[in-house]
């Protein structure tokens, strides 16, 4: 009791300013993190003169305009670019999840020759960037007649996403109790049915985490669209923005609107999936 | 229970294994493993008039010693180490501090801070590059006016346009964007430290700094090591930010050239020079070796020595 009475007041006194300091630092950093994004978005809705006169002010009835967005949407194929990105991302993420889950199951459940080698091969892919094989990937795509197709991007992104997917899903498969599969085998259920009807539904939460981790780098990638599919018809949103903004760099309304158009979908996705992403990170999915 | 043991003579050929593993492995091998190995092989060849012939290590010797090549190569490599050093000295310590603050017990709004601070990490490097280019632009004057408003206006400069400061400015932009990754990873580890250990140290009379230094820091060292190797791999593979802000020529006068942009120019060529697949492969091979050595050093020396704590 004596101990408590001696310590309680002092810690009590110190706790208030300490938590204020913590909040002040975190709030300051949050402002630093968001400031550039907010500046771009608010100025995208302003007239050119207002952009320069009062860059930090919100658009008001005088300065509000959508002229930048009109120009971007009319003068370039933003719709097409977004569509391309969407198709590539959905196909690649879907296939990474499916093929990754199947491979993870095979590698953790069955003992066979070469199991260790294949596991090691996938593990290497987590650290070694696929980009370093670009010279050969391009000549391969030329030979397969896949240059300037979305298929080329999907294939490369599957190869890029599989290592981490196999790793995370394997860790997860290991936590599934053996009794489940053994009971099914005793009832003479086929291996395919065990995987698709028993295992796959159990993998859903882990697959959601993998989906978020796989999706972000694919959606944001510039390298492979630039090299494998730079054609007007196959441009992704990142490549489209890169080229549009480079081209119209003096047209501030258009540039700011183009950047906003590229930022907003990601922000929407992030608010939907941030819980899943943070859960994945904090549950140690990438350790 | 040996459901699919190949050694078991009575069992039929394991078709299910082929079915489960085949498609994924095939795509991975064809579009990742094979191209990587093929690139390593290609770096030993040289193409002339459409013919390619084996030249051994000649491409590497050219890259490292030839006047026209070596200057660009050493410049890019040196810049890359500067780029990496700034991330290690600025990004990871800031990430650590934010993580420690976020994990303060009973902190309100910690989820909101976490989500908002992580937001820039989600955006494309290309977008981030342009956003900062606009913000730092002397034409717009946002940064300049801001510095004047806090009394530091005379220090404003066109940082992105000067040889002396462009690389450092780009590194800081990258730090700003990716600080969320070390923050999240360290934060997750801090959350997993059991309360009893921390309570025990508090009962023993340690103040919060002592508790952090003697109890928490040793427990998060493995995560810090992992963050470092992730930073290393990402930095030595960086390309988008430089390309978005400075183009393939990594100006002014190649002062922002990294291995990634050097690789791109070598492979595809630019105004002054024709692209070369074999020289590109040689640059990629060197990048591969640098990253591999980094990863191996990490696995064999750091990962092994640091004890992993199981909670």
From TrEMBL, chain A:
Keywords: Cell inner membrane, Cell membrane, Membrane, Transmembrane, Transmembrane helix, Transport. Residues 82-273 form the ABC transmembrane type-1 domain. It comes from the Bacteria. One of its GO terms (biological process) is transmembrane transport. Its main location: membrane. It is found in: Cell inner membrane; Cell membrane. The chain crosses the membrane at residues 20-45, 83-105, 117-142, 154-173, 194-219, 254-273. SUPFAM superfamilies: MetI-like (SSF161098). It is a multi-pass membrane protein. GO terms for cellular component: plasma membrane. Belongs to the binding-protein-dependent transport system permease family. Part of the ABC transporter complex UgpBAEC involved in sn-glycerol-3-phosphate (G3P) import. Probably responsible for the translocation of the substrate across the membrane. The complex is composed of two ATP-binding proteins (UgpC), two transmembrane proteins (UgpA and UgpE) and a solute-binding protein (UgpB). This is sn-glycerol-3-phosphate transport system permease protein UgpE. It comes from Marinomonas profundi.
TrEMBL record, chain B:
Coiled coil: none annotated. One of its GO terms (biological process) is transmembrane transport. It comes from the Bacteria. The chain crosses the membrane at residues 12-37, 81-104, 116-135, 166-187, 219-239, 279-302. It is a multi-pass membrane protein. CDD domains: TM_PBP2. It holds the Pfam family BPD_transp_1. It is found in: Cell membrane. Keywords: Cell membrane, Membrane, Transmembrane, Transmembrane helix, Transport. Signal peptide: none annotated. One of its GO terms (cellular component) is plasma membrane. Residues 77-298 form the ABC transmembrane type-1 domain. Belongs to the binding-protein-dependent transport system permease family. This is Sugar ABC transporter permease.
